[in-house]
Amino acid sequence: MSQLTQRLLLFFLGIPLLIGIIVFLPMYNHLVWNIIMILASIAGASELFKMLNKKFDLTLRKLPLAGAYLPVAAYLEVTGLVTSGFIGMVLIIIISIIMTREVLLKDKLDIDKVISRFMASTMILIYPGLFMAYTIKVSMFSEATYLILLFLILIFTNDSMAFVTGSIFGRKSTNLFLVSPNKSVVGFIGGIFFTIITGLFFRLIFPIPISFWQMMLLAAASTISANTGDLIESAIKRSADVKDAGNLMPGRGGILDSIDSILFSAPIYYYILLKILN
Fold it and tell me: Residue 237 in contact with residue 243, Cβ under 8 Å?
Protein backbone atom coordinates (compact mmCIF):
# COMPACT_ATOMS: atom_id res chain seq x y z
CA MET A 1 0.00 0.00 0.00
CA SER A 2 1.48 3.37 -1.02
CA GLN A 3 2.07 6.16 1.46
CA LEU A 4 -0.52 8.31 -0.31
CA THR A 5 -3.13 5.53 -0.03
CA GLN A 6 -2.35 5.03 3.66
CA ARG A 7 -2.69 8.74 4.34
CA LEU A 8 -5.99 8.96 2.51
CA LEU A 9 -7.37 5.94 4.36
CA LEU A 10 -6.35 7.48 7.66
CA PHE A 11 -8.01 10.73 6.63
CA PHE A 12 -11.31 9.18 5.54
CA LEU A 13 -11.54 6.75 8.47
CA GLY A 14 -9.93 8.68 11.31
CA ILE A 15 -11.47 12.09 10.69
CA PRO A 16 -15.12 10.88 10.74
CA LEU A 17 -14.41 9.10 14.05
CA LEU A 18 -12.96 12.25 15.61
CA ILE A 19 -15.80 14.35 14.21
CA GLY A 20 -18.29 11.95 15.80
CA ILE A 21 -16.57 12.30 19.16
CA ILE A 22 -16.57 16.10 18.93
CA VAL A 23 -20.19 16.40 17.79
CA PHE A 24 -21.90 13.65 19.80
CA LEU A 25 -19.82 13.70 23.01
CA PRO A 26 -19.60 17.36 24.01
CA MET A 27 -20.38 16.79 27.69
CA TYR A 28 -18.06 18.03 30.45
CA ASN A 29 -16.34 20.51 28.14
CA HIS A 30 -15.60 17.85 25.52
CA LEU A 31 -13.99 15.51 28.05
CA VAL A 32 -13.55 12.60 25.61
CA TRP A 33 -11.88 14.78 22.95
CA ASN A 34 -9.61 16.32 25.58
CA ILE A 35 -8.63 12.90 26.93
CA ILE A 36 -7.58 11.95 23.39
CA MET A 37 -5.48 15.10 23.20
CA ILE A 38 -3.86 14.33 26.57
CA LEU A 39 -3.04 10.76 25.54
CA ALA A 40 -1.63 12.02 22.22
CA SER A 41 0.53 14.47 24.14
CA ILE A 42 1.89 11.69 26.38
CA ALA A 43 2.62 9.52 23.33
CA GLY A 44 4.32 12.44 21.57
CA ALA A 45 6.40 13.23 24.66
CA SER A 46 7.42 9.57 24.85
CA GLU A 47 8.60 9.61 21.22
CA LEU A 48 10.48 12.88 21.77
CA PHE A 49 12.08 11.43 24.91
CA LYS A 50 13.40 8.47 22.92
CA MET A 51 14.85 10.76 20.25
CA LEU A 52 16.52 13.15 22.70
CA ASN A 53 17.69 10.38 25.02
CA LYS A 54 20.00 9.08 22.29
CA LYS A 55 21.94 12.34 22.36
CA PHE A 56 21.57 13.65 25.91
CA ASP A 57 21.33 10.49 28.05
CA LEU A 58 18.31 11.66 30.01
CA THR A 59 18.07 10.00 33.41
CA LEU A 60 14.51 10.98 34.37
CA ARG A 61 12.69 7.94 32.97
CA LYS A 62 9.20 9.19 33.86
CA LEU A 63 9.71 12.38 31.87
CA PRO A 64 7.32 11.29 29.05
CA LEU A 65 4.48 11.68 31.57
CA ALA A 66 5.24 15.41 31.46
CA GLY A 67 3.25 15.42 28.23
CA ALA A 68 0.10 15.22 30.35
CA TYR A 69 0.78 17.82 33.02
CA LEU A 70 0.02 21.03 31.14
CA PRO A 71 -2.89 19.66 29.04
CA VAL A 72 -4.52 18.39 32.26
CA ALA A 73 -3.93 21.79 33.86
CA ALA A 74 -5.59 23.42 30.83
CA TYR A 75 -8.65 21.19 31.19
CA LEU A 76 -8.93 22.04 34.89
CA GLU A 77 -8.88 25.73 33.91
CA VAL A 78 -11.54 25.21 31.25
CA THR A 79 -13.87 23.45 33.69
CA GLY A 80 -13.41 26.17 36.29
CA LEU A 81 -11.98 23.79 38.90
CA VAL A 82 -8.89 25.99 39.19
CA THR A 83 -8.28 29.66 38.55
CA SER A 84 -6.92 31.11 35.31
CA GLY A 85 -3.15 30.95 35.21
CA PHE A 86 -2.93 27.48 36.75
CA ILE A 87 -0.98 26.29 33.70
CA GLY A 88 1.76 28.83 34.41
CA MET A 89 2.04 27.68 38.01
CA VAL A 90 2.32 24.02 36.99
CA LEU A 91 4.94 24.91 34.37
CA ILE A 92 7.08 26.78 36.91
CA ILE A 93 6.80 24.00 39.51
CA ILE A 94 7.84 21.24 37.09
CA ILE A 95 10.72 23.24 35.59
CA SER A 96 11.90 24.02 39.14
CA ILE A 97 11.83 20.30 39.98
CA ILE A 98 13.81 19.45 36.83
CA MET A 99 16.41 22.12 37.64
CA THR A 100 16.64 21.19 41.33
CA ARG A 101 17.18 17.55 40.43
CA GLU A 102 20.45 18.49 38.75
CA VAL A 103 21.71 19.89 42.07
CA LEU A 104 21.53 16.41 43.58
CA LEU A 105 23.97 14.83 41.10
CA LYS A 106 26.57 12.54 42.65
CA ASP A 107 28.57 11.62 39.55
CA LYS A 108 31.16 14.27 38.68
CA LEU A 109 31.05 13.27 35.00
CA ASP A 110 27.37 14.27 34.79
CA ILE A 111 28.12 17.91 35.64
CA ASP A 112 29.20 18.66 32.08
CA LYS A 113 25.82 17.46 30.80
CA VAL A 114 23.64 19.58 33.09
CA ILE A 115 22.79 22.30 30.55
CA SER A 116 22.02 19.96 27.63
CA ARG A 117 20.03 17.60 29.87
CA PHE A 118 18.04 20.42 31.42
CA MET A 119 17.23 21.96 28.03
CA ALA A 120 16.19 18.60 26.59
CA SER A 121 14.00 17.82 29.61
CA THR A 122 12.32 21.22 29.46
CA MET A 123 11.70 20.77 25.74
CA ILE A 124 9.83 17.52 26.40
CA LEU A 125 7.65 19.36 28.92
CA ILE A 126 6.85 22.23 26.55
CA TYR A 127 6.72 20.30 23.27
CA PRO A 128 4.23 18.75 22.99
CA GLY A 129 2.68 19.45 26.43
CA LEU A 130 2.33 23.25 26.49
CA PHE A 131 1.39 23.48 22.82
CA MET A 132 -1.18 20.70 23.15
CA ALA A 133 -2.77 22.52 26.09
CA TYR A 134 -4.16 25.08 23.64
CA THR A 135 -6.19 22.45 21.78
CA ILE A 136 -7.94 21.91 25.11
CA LYS A 137 -8.34 25.61 25.85
CA VAL A 138 -10.45 25.95 22.69
CA SER A 139 -13.18 24.03 24.53
CA MET A 140 -13.68 27.05 26.82
CA PHE A 141 -15.62 28.93 24.11
CA SER A 142 -19.40 28.72 24.04
CA GLU A 143 -19.26 27.55 20.39
CA ALA A 144 -16.62 24.95 21.28
CA THR A 145 -18.12 22.10 19.26
CA TYR A 146 -17.99 24.08 16.01
CA LEU A 147 -14.61 25.65 16.79
CA ILE A 148 -12.88 22.37 17.67
CA LEU A 149 -14.40 20.83 14.57
CA LEU A 150 -13.21 23.76 12.45
CA PHE A 151 -9.69 23.53 13.84
CA LEU A 152 -9.46 19.82 13.11
CA ILE A 153 -10.80 20.22 9.57
CA LEU A 154 -8.48 23.14 8.76
CA ILE A 155 -5.37 21.30 9.93
CA PHE A 156 -6.15 18.03 8.20
CA THR A 157 -7.24 19.78 5.01
CA ASN A 158 -3.92 21.59 4.88
CA ASP A 159 -1.94 18.45 5.64
CA SER A 160 -3.76 16.28 3.10
CA MET A 161 -4.04 18.79 0.27
CA ALA A 162 -0.45 19.98 0.66
CA PHE A 163 0.65 16.34 0.35
CA VAL A 164 -1.66 15.58 -2.59
CA THR A 165 -0.93 18.74 -4.61
CA GLY A 166 2.78 18.50 -3.84
CA SER A 167 2.94 14.84 -4.87
CA ILE A 168 1.08 15.41 -8.13
CA PHE A 169 2.25 18.84 -9.27
CA GLY A 170 5.18 19.88 -7.10
CA ARG A 171 8.01 17.52 -7.90
CA LYS A 172 9.97 20.27 -9.65
CA SER A 173 9.55 22.80 -6.85
CA THR A 174 11.12 20.89 -3.95
CA ASN A 175 14.23 21.67 -1.88
CA LEU A 176 12.60 24.78 -0.46
CA PHE A 177 13.64 23.86 3.11
CA LEU A 178 16.83 22.10 4.14
CA VAL A 179 15.10 20.32 7.04
CA SER A 180 12.48 18.84 4.70
CA PRO A 181 13.73 18.81 1.09
CA ASN A 182 10.69 16.89 -0.18
CA LYS A 183 8.34 19.75 0.73
CA SER A 184 7.38 21.70 -2.39
CA VAL A 185 6.27 25.25 -3.10
CA VAL A 186 3.25 23.90 -4.97
CA GLY A 187 2.24 21.76 -2.00
CA PHE A 188 2.65 24.70 0.37
CA ILE A 189 0.48 26.96 -1.79
CA GLY A 190 -2.04 24.19 -2.45
CA GLY A 191 -2.44 23.55 1.27
CA ILE A 192 -3.08 27.23 2.00
CA PHE A 193 -5.55 27.63 -0.87
CA PHE A 194 -7.68 24.59 -0.07
CA THR A 195 -7.62 25.33 3.66
CA ILE A 196 -8.98 28.85 3.14
CA ILE A 197 -11.67 27.52 0.78
CA THR A 198 -12.60 24.87 3.34
CA GLY A 199 -12.82 27.48 6.09
CA LEU A 200 -15.12 29.70 4.04
CA PHE A 201 -17.29 26.73 3.14
CA PHE A 202 -17.49 25.80 6.83
CA ARG A 203 -18.55 29.38 7.60
CA LEU A 204 -21.45 29.06 5.13
CA ILE A 205 -22.75 25.88 6.73
CA PHE A 206 -22.31 26.37 10.47
CA PRO A 207 -23.56 29.28 12.64
CA ILE A 208 -20.30 30.59 14.06
CA PRO A 209 -19.80 34.29 14.92
CA ILE A 210 -16.87 34.77 12.54
CA SER A 211 -17.01 36.96 9.46
CA PHE A 212 -15.70 35.82 6.08
CA TRP A 213 -12.63 38.07 6.37
CA GLN A 214 -11.94 36.79 9.86
CA MET A 215 -12.29 33.23 8.60
CA MET A 216 -9.79 33.86 5.83
CA LEU A 217 -7.33 35.22 8.41
CA LEU A 218 -7.97 32.33 10.78
CA ALA A 219 -7.58 29.70 8.05
CA ALA A 220 -4.45 31.30 6.57
CA ALA A 221 -2.79 31.65 9.99
CA SER A 222 -3.71 28.06 10.87
CA THR A 223 -2.32 26.59 7.66
CA ILE A 224 0.91 28.60 7.73
CA SER A 225 1.54 27.71 11.39
CA ALA A 226 0.65 24.07 10.67
CA ASN A 227 3.27 23.96 7.90
CA THR A 228 5.78 25.57 10.24
CA GLY A 229 5.02 22.97 12.91
CA ASP A 230 5.65 20.21 10.42
CA LEU A 231 9.01 21.72 9.49
CA ILE A 232 9.99 22.13 13.14
CA GLU A 233 9.37 18.45 13.80
CA SER A 234 11.37 17.59 10.68
CA ALA A 235 14.28 19.64 12.05
CA ILE A 236 14.08 17.76 15.37
CA LYS A 237 14.10 14.39 13.62
CA ARG A 238 17.05 15.32 11.40
CA SER A 239 18.98 16.52 14.43
CA ALA A 240 18.19 13.23 16.19
CA ASP A 241 19.09 11.22 13.04
CA VAL A 242 15.73 9.45 12.76
CA LYS A 243 13.34 9.20 9.82
CA ASP A 244 10.10 8.97 11.82
CA ALA A 245 9.29 9.73 15.43
CA GLY A 246 7.62 6.31 15.72
CA ASN A 247 5.59 3.76 13.77
CA LEU A 248 2.11 3.81 15.33
CA MET A 249 0.35 5.67 12.51
CA PRO A 250 0.18 3.94 9.08
CA GLY A 251 1.68 6.11 6.36
CA ARG A 252 2.62 8.83 8.83
CA GLY A 253 5.15 7.39 11.27
CA GLY A 254 4.64 8.16 14.94
CA ILE A 255 2.13 10.14 16.96
CA LEU A 256 4.44 13.16 16.93
CA ASP A 257 4.53 12.98 13.12
CA SER A 258 0.73 13.17 13.14
CA ILE A 259 0.25 15.98 15.67
CA ASP A 260 3.16 18.24 14.72
CA SER A 261 0.89 20.50 12.64
CA ILE A 262 -1.72 20.61 15.41
CA LEU A 263 0.83 21.54 18.06
CA PHE A 264 2.25 24.66 16.46
CA SER A 265 -1.06 25.94 15.10
CA ALA A 266 -3.14 25.42 18.29
CA PRO A 267 -1.83 28.51 20.18
CA ILE A 268 -2.19 30.67 17.05
CA TYR A 269 -5.74 29.42 16.48
CA TYR A 270 -6.71 29.95 20.12
CA TYR A 271 -5.40 33.50 20.43
CA ILE A 272 -6.96 34.61 17.12
CA LEU A 273 -10.28 33.19 18.31
CA LEU A 274 -9.84 34.95 21.64
CA LYS A 275 -9.41 38.25 19.81
CA ILE A 276 -12.33 37.64 17.43
CA LEU A 277 -14.86 36.39 19.99
CA ASN A 278 -14.07 38.81 22.84
Answer: yes
Residues in the chain: 278
d(CA 221, CA 239): 27
Interval 54-100: pLDDT, tens:
878 776 778 888 899 999 999 999 999 999 889 999 999 999 988 88
Separation of CA 124 from chain center? 13
CA pair distance 176, 4, nearest whole angstrom: 21
CB atoms within 10 A of CB 257: 23
Higher pLDDT, 57 or 125: 125
H runs (alpha helix) in the chain: 3-24, 27-56, 66-79, 86-103, 114-124, 131-137, 144-169, 185-205, 212-240, 255-277
Total count of domains within the chain: 1
For 173, the enclosing helix (H) or strand (E) is none
Instruction: Give the residue numbers spanning the domain of 137.
Output: 3-277
Instruction: Please list the residues that pair with 253 across neighbouring strands.
Output: 249
Contact 185, 173 (CB under 8 A): yes
pLDDT digits (tens, 9 = 90+) for 203-252: 999 989 999 999 999 999 999 999 999 999 988 888 888 877 766 665 56
